[in-house]
Write a structure and sequence with these properties.
Layout lengths: L4 E3 L3 H12 L11 H9 L4 E7 L2 E13 L2 E9 L8 H12 L5 E7 L3 H9 L3 E6 L9 E7 L3
Parallel strand pairs: 4-5
Antiparallel strand pairs: 1-2, 2-3, 3-4, 5-7, 6-7
Helix pairs in contact: 1-2
The protein binds coenzyme A.
Coenzyme A binds next to strand 4, helix 3 and helix 4.
Length: 151
Amino acid sequence: MEPAIITTPTADQFEWCAQLMAASEPWLALRRGIEECRHAVTHPEYLVHIAHSEDVLLGFIRIHPRGVAGSPYIASIAVAAEARSQGVGSFLLRHAEQVFSHSRYIFLCVSSFNPRAVQLYERRGYRALGRLPDYVIDGADEILMLKRLPA
Ligand SMILES: CC(C)(COP(=O)(O)OP(=O)(O)OC[C@H]1O[C@@H](n2cnc3c(N)ncnc32)[C@H](O)[C@@H]1OP(=O)(O)O)[C@@H](O)C(=O)NCCC(=O)NCCS
């Protein structure tokens, strides 16, 4: 399934993003509560784009335009549970890479206990740079990944 539309969220849609995050792994394990998720998705330094299919909200991506060493950083990506494994996440990643196509690199972090997400990023050309041990919670690493964008 390829979503037809990407837009910036309305107030209600910011709440949808926060609820999706707070109810999903890895944020449950990382102990991000709903208030922290609301703060994350509405933080003015971050760009949030939502993928829709007609009237159905499918997922969102949240990016800091200069989050790592002056390059864009994908801080969160989430797809509604019922819409996963149908290409929406890949569509959102491609969209972010297009929005920041003037950059040489784009970064993201993924939790060490989220191997399916790691596989998705590797398939899409991201490679691991290093691990941040016990970064959010003890016992789990955050893996910093980057992708070189086409010139
Ligand atoms: C990771 C995620 C954004 C990918 O979106 P998607 O629409 O499912 O992705 P695509 O359909 O383009 O690609 C499918 C791949 O995503 C990964 N994926 C699917 N479901 C996943 C899940 N629940 N958790 C983590 N990765 C998942 C798998 O690698 C999958 O490939 P497979 O179907 O061959 O196993 C989405 O699955 C999700 O929201 N997962 C929960 C939140 C999360 O893990 N976010 C990433 C934080 S770094």
